[in-house]
């Protein structure tokens, strides 16, 4: 067992930047189609944060991706999309991520 690895900070920051780029690109695409769209990267429990932000924005629709996890992985990780769909105040669209079966 080792101690703290500073490389993890760099990896985490690289992932946040990648995520930020994806969100910005998606918002641009939606706005280009004439839709009102905002995006953000948040740190918190994903299930709670998605519901909180949707409520604060008075969202009409939440669109989430699904990894399609099954079995033990689904049990251990939980399903963010499933929890949001059960507790959201508005409609929820769940999109399966391609390549996952």
Give structural notes.
With about 100 residues, this protein is mainly alpha-helical. It has 2 domains: about 1-35; about 40-100, HUPs (Rossmann fold), CATH 3.40.50. Helices cover about 50% and strands about 10% of the residues. The protein is built from 4 helices and 2 strands. It has helices spanning about 5-30, 45-55, 70-75, 80-85; strands at about 60-65, 90-95. It has a two-stranded parallel ribbon with strand order 1-2. The longest helix has 26 residues, at about 5-30. The N and C termini lie far apart (about 35 Å). The model has no long low-confidence stretch (mean pLDDT about 85).
Q: What gross morphology would you assign?
A: globular
The CATH class of the largest domain is identified as Alpha Beta
β content, as a range? 5-15%
By CATH, the topology of the largest domain is Rossmann fold
Give a short account of the largest sheet.
2 strands, parallel
CATH superfamily of the largest domain: HUPs
In order across it, which strands form the biggest sheet? 1-2
DSSP strand tally: 2
Count the helices. How many?
4
Based on CA atoms alone, the radius of gyration comes out at: 16 Å
| Helix percentage | 40-55%
């Amino acid at each position: 067992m080792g101690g703290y690895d500073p490389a993890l900070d760099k990896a985490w920051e690289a992932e946040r930047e990648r995520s930020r780029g994806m969100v910005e690109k998606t918002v641009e695409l939606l706005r280009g189609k004439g839709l009102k769209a905002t995006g953000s990267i948040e740190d918190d429990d994903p299930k709670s944060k998605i519901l909180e932000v949707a409520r604060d924005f008075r969202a009409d629709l939440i669109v989430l991706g699904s990894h399609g996890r099954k079995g033990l992985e689904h049990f251990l990780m939980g399903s963010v999309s499933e929890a949001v769909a059960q507790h959201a105040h508005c409609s929820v669209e769940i999109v399966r991520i391609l390549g996952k079966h």
